[in-house]
Every structure is written in structure tokens, then in C-alpha cells.
Write a structure and sequence with these properties.
Length: 281
Amino acid sequence: MAYKSVFTVATSEAQVALAISAAAKICIENDSHLDVLALGVDRTQVGYSYVGSGAVMMQVALAQAEADARALESAAKAAIAAESMPLRGATEAAVAQLGALSDLVAQRARFADLVVLPRPYGKDRGAEAEAVIEAALFEGQAPVLVLPEHGLPSATPKRVVIAWNQGREALAAVRRAMPFLKSADLVDITVIDPPSHGPERSDPGGLLCQMLVRHGVKAEVTVLAKTLPRVSDVLARHIRDSAADLLVMGAYGHSRFREAILGGATRNMMEQAEVPVLMAH
């Protein structure tokens, strides 16, 4: 398996070059196709208005969203043209309301092998950045590679950490990350405070390690105690200590709303991770 269809969504001009540079590296390494959606977001949320004013507000917001989409498309094309090697790809401009962008993003993400997106938290990040990631993960059922501020140093990470908790989301992420895992020099299956009563109690991470080794992956298991208040803190420290350059983990939604705000550990890792994070749900 290789990543033959790579997809990214541009919602901020400041982040376009970062995402396309990372996606381009993966496309060149895998001889794959890059699709870019330049998404202008209409943030109008009309609850009530004076007679006649609602239509005017919506028209102005729509015109701004269309202008944003065109500007993002131009920025994406410029970023693609600036790459040192030619890319096979396509750009598409579209407009969606903030509350309705999930279907559009999910429909495109569903047919991608990998979605590459910038970190959704930080300066100049709107609510649409997190909504795009959620749509790709949950509705699109696609693996998402979330980039830190410095982007993707290499399309072939040398040392990968897997956050393993025996969950189906974590296993889904491992399966989707297989092209990265096979090319890595070492894959570290990291288990934090494994349960004393469970199917892997005598050999935490052992079955996953066996599966990966059979695929030709150079894997080992590390078991850590929860010596910091949050699991994400322990994981972040381990990533730094082991000089890892990719984290693979399951994505979790913990919310009373279906449009789930990403769960605590998932969000914490995206906020503090200094390396790219590949997630799946």
C-alpha cells in the first residue's frame, strides 16, 4: 500500500504553503496525486434580524467567502508551482457555511488515502480549521496527518512512536500509517500504564508488535508509567526523549454533540506535539 491520493483543504492563506509543501513531499515520495480544496467559509449564523437586513448580511458574507476561496485557490496554485519537482494534482474552489462544511470536506476526504492539514490551534486559526479535521476523520473516515508549525521535515520519518492503548481507533491509525511504518528505521509501540486486567496484561503491545514485524516493520515495545498528570504529557516527553519524528494515534470524539469536539488526549497532543501526528478514527 502507498498513499496514491493525497488531499488537503486550504482555509487560511497563512497556512497554504505549509500544507502543500508537506503534501508535495509525500506525493513525490509515493508518485501520487494531490487534490487541494480552497474553501471559502461563510460564517453567517443568522439567528434573527430586522426585516430585510438578513438577506443583505447573507449576500455580503457570501461575496466575502467567494473572494476568500479565489484567493486561497491562487495561493495554492502558487505554492504548487513553487515546488522543485512537478506535481500531478488539481485545485478546486468552493464555498460553504461554517455549520455545513462537514459534508463537502468528508465527501472529498472519503476518497483520499491521506489528508494533510495544518494544526487547527494557534494564532490566525478559525473554528473552521478544527471543523475540517473533524469532518475528514469522522465523516470522511480518512487518516489525517496534522502538521506542527515547522511542517513535515521528511516524507519518510525515521523514528515513529505509536500511542497504543488496545483500542480500535489506535489500530485503525496503525493500519493507515503502514507506508510510514514500513519505511521507518524504528517504530516504538508506546504503552502507558497498561491495565492489569485485560487481553494484553501479560504482554502489552506484543500482538501489535508481532503483526508489524510480519509486515517487515522494525518494531519494539516501550511500557511507561503515568508519571505526569496527563497521558498526553507523558507521551510528549517520550517523543522528545526518543527523538521521534512522527506520532501515530487514534482520534477520539468526546462530546454530547455529533459534530464532536476532539477528545482530551487527542486535542492535547495536537496542541503540544512538536512532530506530525497521524490520526484515524
